[in-house]
Write a structure and sequence with these properties.
alpha/beta, globular, 7 helices, Rossmann fold, 7-stranded parallel beta sheet, single chain
Length: 246
């Protein structure tokens, strides 16, 4: 069955796995049409395409090639006719001491974690301005607000994304477009799968709530910012970290 033309449309970057896939599932269950991209489809995408039909659309795209993301948004608009929500979820983490990080790796990290989400926001904001309404949620990191060894470039990109969101909220607020950041602490996902058991225990000891978050707890925060319950919240960074940065 084809959804009505006024059914809201969400774009979730990196929606084939991890937090992105959880958000895709939740939005579909709430009656949204959802578009996402990743470098490869995988089992989740294949299963969701079969279950959701025309309400779900996936396309291959790469954060490392930001110009292709404009084409992705144009294709979403051609298919669904609107964009009501952008969740800038996808990111790339590389851990290495700054002085030994190759210049090419620095460029890749900045491109994937800052240039790509800014490019997506630019393309989506243009559509939202025509609609006079929309929501942008950027998924940041506690690395943006607290220093950790080995992630200096990643931290710089995420801090830039938070600053970008605050300024964008100022610009787009008069057009009824809200912009916020979710700032996750440590939670179980593929990005943290390589954390050693020793470091995991150290993180838990330093966290006032004494544990890592579950992925659903991060999704809860993002979904709140997407919802009407957050209709008067914009320009904010919502830290979800169990208190480790307090």
């Amino acid at each position: 069955m084809t959804a009505p033309a006024d059914t809201p449309v969400a774009i979730v970057s990196g929606g084939s796995r991890g937090l992105g896939s959880v958000l895709v599932e939740r939005l579909l269950k709430r009656g949204w049409r959802v578009a996402t991209f990743s470098r490869s489809a995988g089992e989740f995408v294949e299963r969701t395409e079969a279950a959701a039909g025309e309400s779900f659309w996936w396309q291959a795209a790469d954060l490392g090639q930001p110009d292709t993301l404009r084409g992705f948004v144009a294709d979403v608009l051609g298919r669904f006719g609107r964009v009501d929500l952008l969740v800038n979820n996808a990111g790339v983490l590389h851990q290495e001491l700054f002085v030994t990080t190759p210049p090419a790796a620095i460029e890749r990290l900045i491109t994937a974690n800052l240039v790509a989400p800014v490019t997506l926001a630019h393309a989506c904001a243009r559509a939202m301005c025509r609609q006079r309404g929309g929501v942008i949620v950027n998924v940041s990191s506690i690395n943006a607000i607290r220093g950790f060894r080995g992630v200096a470039v990643y931290s710089a990109a995420k801090a830039g994304l938070d600053g970008f969101g605050r300024s964008l909220a100022r610009e787009l607020g008069p057009l009824n477009i809200r912009v916020n950041s979710v700032v996750p602490g440590f939670f179980d996902t593929e990005m943290t799968a390589e954390v050693t058991e020793e470091n995991r225990k150290r993180i838990q000891r330093r966290t006032p709530l004494g544990r890592l978050a579950g992925i659903d707890e991060m999704a809860d925060a993002a979904m709140f910012l997407c919802s009407e319950e957050a209709s008067f919240i914009t320009g904010q960074t919502i830290v979800v970290d169990g208190g480790i940065t307090c």
